[in-house]
Amino acid sequence: MKLLTLNFLTCAIKTCKTSPASFPLHPRDCELEVVESESVNLPFLKNILPRLMWDELRVIADELGLPALPSTPPTRDDLVEPSSSSTTTISHAQNAGNAAEGQQQAEEKPSQTARDLHRVLLETCIKEGKLVCGNCGHEYKVMEGVANFLLPGHLV
Amino acid sequence: MAESDTQGADYEEQHVHSVYEQIASHFSSTRYKPWPIVERFLQELPDGSVGADVGCGNGKYLAVNRNIFIVGSDRYALYQILSTNLIKIAKQHQPHAAIVADSLSLPHPAHSFDFAISIAVIHHLSTPARRVEAVKAVLDLLRPPSAEGSRDGGKALIYVWALEQKDSRRGWDEGHEQDVMVPWVMKGKKEKGSKKGKGQEERDQVVEEGAVKQAEDKTFLRYYHLYKKGELERDIEEAGGEVVQAGYEKDNWWAVAVLKRTN
Ligand SMILES: [Zn+2]
């Protein structure tokens, strides 16, 4: 499960949702896995930027023992390589097997900041472990990269 | 109400969930083409849109648009299928995720999504109250519009099976009982020649009855509430939504709805 997913998850128990402590869910005993994808989707990253709960993501990164995220979120401009040039012929993205798309995006190249963001949000995945609600303490299991939010009958 | 609600849940456990769990291992990966209206809905979303596919099944809609982020959820613990498909999708650089969750207890912060889809899910709920609750659970995911009467909020696409389908081989039509048990035939594995019989795993599909039967074929019955004209729109209104577009496509009613702003 990509870490970006945690930006959109909270406790499944209805009475918890309204409590600020239920977001974000806290990873515990997690086994991480990096699923590499070679192309950074710059338009996607730019547009998702305002949706990120940055402080909460920093907490999650810290709890997972990942390198610390910067204290302030990057801006849209931070994601673009200043010296981007359309003359670069051997783009990294072309190795990914979709050369056409790689060429289209060649005008604006992702910066190191964009690649770092891509790495942490979209390539870093929780493979096995638990997600814990900070309000009620309920633990949701992650198995084979899929988190299970089904509740026992008495909690529904 | 609480009691009938429990009964509804128990009934669905027996006549919907346990059936899916038994057939889950036979789900095919991406054999079925997405419904055109669902595909178009997803393709027309702006880049960077974030949303939910409530009842994502094998995840076939997750791959339609690589510039959006979809969190798919399903009641069925299809780990193997989901994780296999997600790995495939990840290799195509698709930024998506899937979780196991109940459509009535979704683990998403309220009003956080740009869109939500609910395809062939709500017709499995067995009481009117639970169906409205399920529609509400979908609508509550959406960003509300910025002002009263404005439609700039998140959008939901809901799809349910129609009662009016006299041209289908099931032949139901106006006036027929709306709560039905639908047979689903799981083909016994055999004879490589008859490839056509495989892959009926798709939840929206029912295998041709009377198709070459084999000894190991198993028939399961699943509960459906068949929606009649106008009923989906009424459920949406009752759940606090506003229908912005609605129609009929191939034996199904569909509607696009936004959250109504109430102030
Ligand atoms: Zn909780």
TrEMBL record, chain A:
Q: Where is the composition biased (Low complexity)?
A: 93-105
Compositional bias per record (Polar residues), positions renumbered to this chain: 82-92
For molecular function, the Gene Ontology terms on record are: protein heterodimerization activity
Q: Name one GO biological process term.
A: rRNA (guanine-N7)-methylation
Give positions of region: Disordered. 66-114
From which domain of life does this come?
Eukaryota
InterPro entries linked: Trm112, Trm112-like
Q: Belongs to which family? A: Belongs to the TRM112 family.
The molecule here is called Trm112p-domain-containing protein
Q: What is the lineage of its organism?
A: Eukaryota, Fungi, Dikarya, Ascomycota, Pezizomycotina
Automatic annotation (TrEMBL), chain B:
Which part of the chain is the Methyltransferase type domain?
A: 53-139
InterPro entries in UniProt: AlkB_tRNA_MeTrf/Diox, Methyltransf_11, SAM-dependent_MTases_sf
Biased composition annotated in UniProt, kind: Basic and acidic residues: 198-210
This protein is called S-adenosyl-L-methionine-dependent methyltransferase
Q: Name one GO molecular function term.
A: tRNA binding
Kindly state one GO CC term assigned in the UniProt record. Answer: cytoplasm
Q: Where is the composition biased (Basic residues)?
A: 188-197
Ordered alphabetically, the record's keywords are: Methyltransferase, Transferase
- Cite the Pfam families for this sequence: Methyltransf_11
Q: Which PANTHER family match?
A: ALKYLATED DNA REPAIR PROTEIN ALKB HOMOLOG 8
Q: Name one process (GO BP) from the record.
A: tRNA methylation
Q: Could you name the domain of life of the organism this protein comes from?
A: Eukaryota
Q: Where is this region: Disordered?
A: 188-210
